[in-house]
Amino acid sequence: MKVYKYGGSSVSDIEKIQNISKHLKEVSKNEKIIVVVSAMGKTTNNLIEKANMITTNPNVRELDRLMSIGEIETISLLSIALNNIGVKAISLTADQISIKTTGEHTKSRIKSIDKNILEKFLEENDVLVVAGFQGINDKNEMTTLGRGGSDTTAVALASVFSVDCHIYTDVDGIYTIDPRVYENAKKIDVISYDEMMELAYLGAGVMEARAVELGYKYLVDIYVEKSLSDVKGTLITSKEKIMEEKEITGISINNNTLMVTIDNIATYAKNLEPIFSMASSLGISIDIISHNDVVSDNGSIAFIVPRTDLNLVNTLFSNLNLKNSNVILNEKISKVSLVGIGMVNRVGIMSKIFKILADNNLSFHQISSSELSISIVVEESNAKTLSKLLAKEFNL
Amino acid sequence: MKVYKYGGSSVSDIEKIQNISKHLKEVSKNEKIIVVVSAMGKTTNNLIEKANMITTNPNVRELDRLMSIGEIETISLLSIALNNIGVKAISLTADQISIKTTGEHTKSRIKSIDKNILEKFLEENDVLVVAGFQGINDKNEMTTLGRGGSDTTAVALASVFSVDCHIYTDVDGIYTIDPRVYENAKKIDVISYDEMMELAYLGAGVMEARAVELGYKYLVDIYVEKSLSDVKGTLITSKEKIMEEKEITGISINNNTLMVTIDNIATYAKNLEPIFSMASSLGISIDIISHNDVVSDNGSIAFIVPRTDLNLVNTLFSNLNLKNSNVILNEKISKVSLVGIGMVNRVGIMSKIFKILADNNLSFHQISSSELSISIVVEESNAKTLSKLLAKEFNL
């Protein structure tokens, strides 16, 4: 048995759905398949747009119910296509196979899936077509799983049966760096869960961090591959299975970055605490914080937030009313990150980065490092140049 | 408490949904409302079209799941609009309030609805927004209720609480005859269940016969009214409540009519039986059957079927292989029907009909009568003329 997942661009029209059904017919001759699908193309965005015509702040219970129908459309159509060519297939929504979630609307996590029900359906069918991105809470309400939710559904189903999970997408694997940025980018054959989570968290678009995290927890081998292609993709697995370790695994560029600088502010902890506690209560996720070394009455502090939180940041500062300080928002910022296991333990990487910055006259705003990554915050206009130079330097 | 139902044309865009939400806000100040909605505009047709791009004969379980999502879209959006203007409202799908059906796909009937669950939701909310047209079967699969299914959902909900049901549509009531055919058509203030069922069965488009039948069974007063209008509509109720009885209540024109004539056929019952039993097994619903009086080896027989069953009729005759007979299909046929309680008991109506046909040189193919109606099968080109003459004669 295997679990397959097809994303929105792989099922964006009826012809693509029919092509997938033919492929599934072939593979289902040898083994049972659970296939998870996303909504067709831009369907979910279109539904959200309708809600936003009413209000930009819709009731989240109802928004979840609305957003869930795109996947139901796809499972019905794919099941119609499969049955039409003689495959025993059945569509299943979250309530039908009891995909239970933690319950928060628009960002639930999967708590459990009923294996017995799935086994019963697998006895009677060759292909189960499951709606991704959705689950039900304890009140039997529809909840959605947030960005990349269908990947999470697929990995969760694979974990139930301890089988491999194949994520089919419109690219043929995970690359060391976005090939649109650096044409010599190399495809990664195998990558550890840790590195992939870090890459995903730092903005590499192909997989969402939560799905990888779930794979990590239940040790599900995740293959990222191109739909209907024989090209070998990328395997995400535990680091114990990876023989050869590379210094640097990949580079991500994250443009969803906004730099907030507050000048002329008292930088004692008690003065800064209200800013970050209010930001937290507004749901703003704060990344790298830096302030000049000397704590003083008129110091300066800077931090990074997602650019998509701009409205929340404006709310934050109108609530705080920092009368004597200057707040500067810089939206033309990018975060370039190098990811690799044990990178920080190897000498010379940071110095190589500084040499590249200096030799090419690239100024930076912030640099931070963690066990798995080094991130450099630069002007957005310099992000691609820097990424290419790093990719060349580290042979990615 | 009341039950409201808004049809597809009343919720065809976001603005209309918002207007309905404002109206519901006003009325929900005085009483609790259960509102049933259809899919937005042509949504269901568009979904069926997608399925038909795959096959004209889709798996009915999957087709039902597909067709059900239009209503889920509407309930979510209407609930978002209601909550946005401060109304305590909640969207509910068939599984959430246990609308159980008989189970056949695409044409289920409602078996039961869980009153306790509804009461619980009514305690916590002022408006319940229920998806029409859908129910779940014993296997927890989505099933749909066939044409006019949302009306049936509304009447069933009204019957659970023994309250009135208001069907809001784009016309302001039931007319004695389609106003597009006869501009002096009169609106009917009150009509009995029997007459309305007969009118609906004979093709008057506003209400489906099954919803009226359910109202009849549980004595639900059904008001057919125009959305967001103060104009008084039509009340459908039991005949005991109707004081003044009219000779003729209304006229319907049904163009979904195909006349099949078989010439040169043995018209003994044993020869005809295979035709009608095979038609029945193909699901062709046969209306008025007529044959010339003398049963003979080379007689002739004619009957009426829905024009939409043309493909099935062709299948019927290719299966039957009536080698010596001529089969003539006439698609340019209409059935004009007069409806009224106890009509057949009053003398003179049939003779008036014949006088009109004769005076105006209108030929007819068949005439049939039942307790509640007289139907005249004529050329489609004559249907409107005949209807107008009848409307004038019977002061409709």
UniProtKB/TrEMBL annotation, chains A, B:
Domain of life per record: Bacteria
Q: Which EC number(s) does UniProt give?
A: 2.7.2.4
Q: Where does ATP bind?
A: K5, Y6, G7, G8, T169, D170, Y175, R180
Pfam (any one): AA_kinase
Domain ACT spans what residues? 338-396
Cellular component terms (Gene Ontology): cytosol
Q: Does the keyword Glycoprotein apply?
A: no
UniProtKB keywords: Amino-acid biosynthesis, ATP-binding, Kinase, Lysine biosynthesis, Nucleotide-binding, Transferase
For this protein, what reaction is catalysed? Answer: L-aspartate + ATP = 4-phospho-L-aspartate + ADP
Q: What is this protein called?
A: Aspartokinase
